[in-house]
What we know:
By secondary structure, the chain is an alpha/beta fold.
Amino acid sequence: MNSPDKQKVVGAAPAGASDRDSAARAVQEMFTSIAPRYDLLNHVLSFNVDRLWWWQTARRFDGILRRPGARVLDLCCGTGDMTFALRRRARHPDVQILGADFSHAMLQRAAQKANGSGHGTKTLRWVEADALRLPFPDGQFDLVTSAFGFRNLADYDAGLREIARVLRRGGECGILDFGEPRGLMGKVYRVYFKKVLPAIGTLISGVKGPYAYLPASVERFPAPEELVARMKQAGFGEASWTPYTMGIAGVYWGKKGG
Ligand SMILES: C[S@@+](CC[C@H](N)C(=O)[O-])C[C@H]1O[C@@H](n2cnc3c(N)ncnc32)[C@H](O)[C@@H]1O
């Protein structure tokens, strides 16, 4: 996991992508292609544990979410489940929560779900934007989250710098993503993640690439200690990683330095 090659990983590299722009385009097309079945697949393939991870991540930021007027950005929001988890924990209706993603199809589903669920359009906003070029001024947000999206960025350091840029001093970020559990549990999990999950994902979505890309992208992703070090380099004075469900997932937490 900590090989020198892995430490040099710049960002996601879907099959066939040769540079940052083609990697981003491939990721965008991939999520657009699976948008109609994305939620179903998420819940089936994670045995619904994804709901627990979103809730755990949102709960971690209760201190910010219960502050009147807090500004929150959920990056790579996809169909919005992390965004909704944040909304549910925010006590004040004037807490502003924005979901941003560069796949129009994923955002459309997020907006439909918001309308149908009573979250309404008044308390949530959706923005079509690239996480590496956010259309916000510096120091705009108290909290930036990203669930299972950050790993797909074409440049992790640029992504971290962009998150730090839009956070105010003392603002926090929470990046929820998959990890690689160790020991016996890790061995069993790897069989599921590399063999069973891609087969079921391909069957239900009818699209081959994305569910082979998922385990490959997790394998390539920097180890927790490496990413924590890169967060500190990007401007987070404090940073840490907390494993969830024996390390199958985990949250990277960071606080922008003064
Ligand atoms: C695995 S989905 C996660 C969606 C949601 N956060 C969740 O937890 O279900 C990853 C999302 O990240 C988005 N994404 C990937 N790279 C992005 C980028 N550079 N800018 C904006 N969105 C991006 C994709 O379009 C996709 O909707």
